[in-house]
């Protein structure tokens, strides 16, 4: 245990751009590793991009590469040996369920044991934590995630996000936005306390910078209200007032606010617009329809009320923006009519963090050659419930 504590101390002391140097030195010393490479998932979650101030390797695809196999399975993967020589192992770099990338190492011909891989994985976890901290002070890791340039609106939207997935004993949650490099006004946010998960999904009106600025106002208003201790209706009302004060009804934003009790599965909801939710329970997919209320900022001093539902262990919830369920096929059938439910059922064995991308791939097939004409956002959550008092302690 002391040796891992020493690596963590070195990572904390290292300059933000030197994290991989610290990990490489530790792995060489402890496991005789011959080379180390770090790749991070791009914004579209389609490629793994090498982290380097000067690019030294081409990206690899998530879906058909050894690195992608470790990334998708979230387990170390050792490439089968085809000839005498060093072994190559790929280890996922993940922080509290948020999949960041993969660390690739080559080890001597004698190989490494399962215990060695487990120890390396522990170092990867420490590396992931420090990458998130280092991003406050360097662009190195953010730049590595870009397969192409982001629009300014997309830059603003991605910087708002808490992550792309999160895992707790009570639930696992994953989300994705498309078009990843040119997103406008769709967004998601979450916050987890000792007793509650608050999840919000936002669909901002407009295009480009107008939509991005509106969504920034909404998300930060909701955060401000939540952190002030307001309940869900209070959060919606404060954000509603902020948007109306700024735009006097000319612009508005649709938001679905959800607050989960981690101990009981009781859910409070405020449906202020277009994001919609489906539930997979067993093999049955149902649309969860709340009483619709006015979008934020449409009128002055709108009052919002809370509705209730209950989730059960084993439930899977999927939330989509109107760019998903209102997207039409060449024949005119909306994706939300039947195809979305089929997609949710077809991917029921995938982990929740992989479902949004799978559903969006099915959406592209549904649309055929027609490009997306609106933002598309999918959030997927698996609910396990609280099995013991282990989750009661405050974080």
From TrEMBL:
<dbReference type="InterPro" id="IPR001932">
    <property type="entry name" value="PPM-type_phosphatase-like_dom"/>
</dbReference>
<dbReference type="InterPro" id="IPR052016">
    <property type="entry name" value="Bact_Sigma-Reg"/>
</dbReference>
<dbReference type="Pfam" id="PF07228">
    <property type="entry name" value="SpoIIE"/>
</dbReference>
<feature type="domain" description="PPM-type phosphatase">
    <location>
        <begin position="168"/>
        <end position="383"/>
    </location>
</feature>
<keyword id="KW-0378">Hydrolase</keyword>
<protein>
    <submittedName>
        <fullName>PP2C family protein-serine/threonine phosphatase</fullName>
        <ecNumber>3.1.3.16</ecNumber>
    </submittedName>
</protein>
<dbReference type="InterPro" id="IPR036457">
    <property type="entry name" value="PPM-type-like_dom_sf"/>
</dbReference>
<dbReference type="GO" id="GO:0004722">
    <property type="term" value="F:protein serine/threonine phosphatase activity"/>
</dbReference>
